[in-house]
Amino acid sequence: MKAFLEREKDRAKKNRIKNRPIVFMTYVMVLTFMALFGYLIYFTAHDSDKVVANAANKRQDSFADFITRGKIVSGDGVVLAETVKDNSGNEFRKYPYGGMFAHTVGYNSYGRAGLELEYNFELMRSHVNIVSKVSNDLHDEKNPGDKLKTTLNYGLTEAAVNAMGGAKGAVVVLDAETSDVLVMYSSPTFDPNDIDNVWASVHSESGSSSTVLLNRATQGLYAPGSTFKVITTLEYLREHSDYESYSHVCNGSDIFNSVSIRCSNNAAHGSLDLKNSLAKSCNTSFANIGANEISIGKLRILTEQLLYNEKLPYDGNYSKSQFKLTKNSDISEIPQTVIGQGDTLVTPLHNALIMQTIANNGVMMKPRMVTEICNDDDGTIKKYGTKSCGQILDKDLCQEIIPMLEEVCKSGTAAEYMSGKTYSVAGKTGTAEYDNNGNCNSWFVGFTNVNDPDIVVSVIVEDYTSNHISGTSVASRIMDKYYEINR
Q: Are strands 181-187 and 248-250 parallel, antiparallel or unpaired?
């Protein structure tokens, strides 16, 4: 009997050993099932809307069977996009102002673009009141989609279009405190009402080099020209508490680190302090600062603090600005780089953000283009607040450079268009050569109402050498329009 019990005990032990993998796999399967079930619950309660809202989700297209795509309206109440019916009852997307808002509002075909893409899910949802919904359902009619309220300003955009006069380039206008996007205009533009022909043209052999679909405001990379001197000045201020004692004698041209640098038209500016070096945009003075007065390693750190070579706080498509100079670069690269030439490239949006940061006492704000989602009765569904990117620059540093930027507009290179206005302006001009034949693009970046800034304007006009439309003249007309609207 004892031997039998011992054999049974031994057999049970062996069976337990044999069954361990089966037990282990059973536990694994149970835990996997529980984890999967738990994720399904979490997904349904938390992530499902995000997945449906993803612009790549084709399920959104089915919403069109029972919802009419919502309107997109400007901050001043102008309808920028809406769905209308033709005489046969077929729906189509209408853009009342054609190319004025083409790169920001976008289009609703060929994969969509702009706000039409980014907020596709919101535009295809409907939160009409229950009475209207029941009535629509009973009459087999679609429910109106939710409305997108933007920060874009029709009046200022119209002024930008007129001021550009058909020249290639871009305009960005931001609220100085919030970075709300009031204008984002790119030229040349296209008519989204005719997107079928536009699409066919740019994808044809003859139109393959066309850039009409490119949003120059966010994706166009340009040499910053003398607008970069703002950053060079900021670095000098950071390294020299005695900046008011800076002195340079400009003879029109000079050699720095074996590189010949000349001022525009070989103008000899004579004896200059730092403020007048910036006001007169003296190339030899800034080449001297770069070659002899500042640390290039620290300059690079500053550019990266200002988001060169970094991601911008912007949700749409954009190109990353670049600054290649390092403390280990050949010293011959310094003179051209610190005056905004060389390999440095920046977008108009990025240049606007740098100026917004200065105007806002060093705090950069994330650009906002949509303020809220409303139902068809203007009832608020969702609001989008402003977001700070933090203290990018020291407040005192901003307060030191602002009077210098104001002098640019009072007596310097921007004075022709900016002096004598009923409001104050601070900013910087830029003339950036883009080839070896002296052809230039024209920049202006700046802000209005210096003591309590209102708007930031960034303008790039391509081929200034031929069209003679300066960035400063465009910015001036936009600023005047702003105060005409906001009297």
A: unpaired
